[in-house]
Specification:
This protein is mostly helical and about 350 residues long. It is about 80% helix and about 0% strand.
Amino acid sequence: MGAVSDLGLIWASLVLCGGMIAVAGTLLTRYADVIADKTGCSGAWIGLVLLATVTSLPELTTGISSVTLAGAPDVAVGNVLGACVLNLSYLAVLDLLKRDEPLFQRAGLEHVGLAAFGIVMLGLAGLGLAIVQFPLAQALGHVGWYTPALLLLYLLAVRSTFAHERARLAVEAGRTVSRYPDMSLRQAALRCLAAAAVVVAAGIWLPFIATELATSMQWSRSFVGTLLVAFVTSMPELVVTLSALRLGAIDMAVANLLGSNLFNVAILAIDDIFYARDPILAAVSPIHLVSVMSAAAMSGVVVIALHTRPAGRVLRLASWSGLALAGAYLFNAYVLFRHGA
């Protein structure tokens, strides 16, 4: 009877934590939209810099604790790469829910750069997994050669987006009228900070609940690391993205997901720094290559969809790009569930 009550408490904690993220994530998106309005910044820039960073902090804390406290590099790497695949699958959800027109009809072309940076970073991570047996993998001591490269690429992606945004603001200066005249920038910033703190706290709590649930249900570490923990740490991205969709902030929603992926792959480098034994990719299962290739292929679909602007829907459900993203996620989940142990 005690075990049943403990399991019920774990599920209740999971529901409570999810509710906190749902409410705070909705408020976070609203106040982020106010900040974008007051500063003149685009939704894409706010999504990349503010929302993507806040919603990816659970992956960061989970990864560091996994490699330092738990000694579980597979959980850390699986969490990061699994979250990348999940984030891209959320674009399929947006495409399905946006009934007036397919998602990529409205999303801005600036997202092509974010997706392209993601492909390059994922490619480096995949190369790091593929050549772990070569001396090059040990070239920087306990840190893999890919770690400084991933961090540099992330900074270049942010710098490139910032330069594009600064040029846009210079052209559009004085052309916009505030959509939130009753709220000041300071009020929006403080409320956004409070909502972000709740999202981060709940997001940090989530992996511990997931671990307890996995132990109680006797699920494997592979399933927990790559599918379950990745799902629960990606809940902030999902909630914030859906909230942005309800506000009509399509570019903010897309930039949040693509920006979170850039941050997630950079987290892989941070985890490598904290994992003091060996380069982290030399200490994990090669099955993670499936997630790397799935995420890279899905990012490629995003680039193609942004270029071709698919207008029709397949069976009146979603565009071909949305269905391709959903299919790639299901394939990745099936392979990991069947062979990840």
